[in-house]
């Protein structure tokens, strides 16, 4: 009897299980709360501390935006995809572990290490996403991509529960450590979890599609990068999709990265925030998988419409938040579509690109996402400081989703993966 999923598919999916601990503990939950407590203890106002976090995210994403297409072009050469993946993986895990050892009220140093860990985390995702074409077939990409996000949400809850338990026990003085030290322990747990469950990815996932190495690879890579940009413009559906993606993924990423800081500014205590974020992960897991299954029936594009509409509702509702119950409702709305919209964007794009140049094209995919992620946090941070209310910044994101969905309607219903764009080798 044929296995439902291959070893390569399962190993690739398991990296979502591994790195999702970072997404919730560092990006969304424990670190933002810990950072804001440290910053405000050092005399930084609530609004300014949120803005500085937004600026740090913007800097990190700008670095990745500059590096992704160049490194992606080089990584398409035989044997290099895994090496670049490994470099960013080590950077991310190491910087995350070091967050646990920052002394006192060094909030600036916290932001520097957070930036490095974000570059490592996001950089590894660039090459991880590109491996999707190596581990499965085009007709299974929606299912495998969505399964990755779904299992990622499930897997992230385990280290998150452990971290919450340690923090709550410390807050109640049941264990003889401070809440700050408990938070630092959660950062170290994140690094261990991420590193441990990445092992199958290193053992079983390999680059099947590649371009043969040639003399002067860096110079040739810049030439291919220029050619790739021209090639992208030839793919009308792909080109329009990237423009739409630029806008709607900006809003998604900003809400994910800034939600905890926003909740803190609303006066929601750390315990409630952690519980809400845990519930969000639990609810998001089945919905990510559901999105993948529904995409097989109705098409990825239609399900992207659904996800974007949900996020428009989220932005409007966020403007009127007043109570913890309101924040619960908002979090559950996000949970229904957060994983689905990201998973289907990844797989929808993967079906349109030439497989032997997956790193190049995913480099452009990620540069679009990273440049978009610069605009969102900056918009939120600047608006919050000008108005004195974070809610105005969140509400302003609605325009990004509206623009994104309008442009997405212009994406032709066709597959762009038809041209022979390079010297393909499949092993």
UniProtKB/TrEMBL annotation:
It comes from Lederbergia wuyishanensis. This is UMF1 family MFS transporter. The chain crosses the membrane at residues 12-35, 55-77, 84-103, 109-131, 151-171, 177-199, 237-258, 270-291, 303-321, 327-349, 361-386, 392-411. Keywords: Membrane, Transmembrane, Transmembrane helix, Transport. Signal peptide: none annotated. It is a multi-pass membrane protein. It is found in: Cell membrane. Gene3D superfamilies: MFS general substrate transporter like domains (1.20.1250.20). The keyword DNA repair does not apply. Residues 237-427 form the Major facilitator superfamily (MFS) profile domain. InterPro entries: Atg22-like, ATG22/LtaA_families, MFS_dom, MFS_trans_sf.
